[in-house]
Amino acid sequence: MAYETILVETHGAVGLVTLNRPQALNALNSTVLKELLAAFAAFEADEAVGAIVLTGSEKAFAAGADIKEMQPLSFPDVVTGDFLGGWDEVAGIRKPVIAAVSGYALGGGCELAMLCDFIIASETAKFGQPEITLGIIPGMGGTQRLTRAVGKAKAMDLVLTGRMMDAAEAERSGLVARIVPADKLVEEALTAAAKIAAFSRASVLLAKESVGRAFEVTLAEGLRYERRQFQSLFATEDQKEGMAAFVEKRKPAFRNR
Ligand code: CO8
Question: What does it do (predicted)?
Answer without folding.
Answer: Could possibly oxidize fatty acids using specific components.
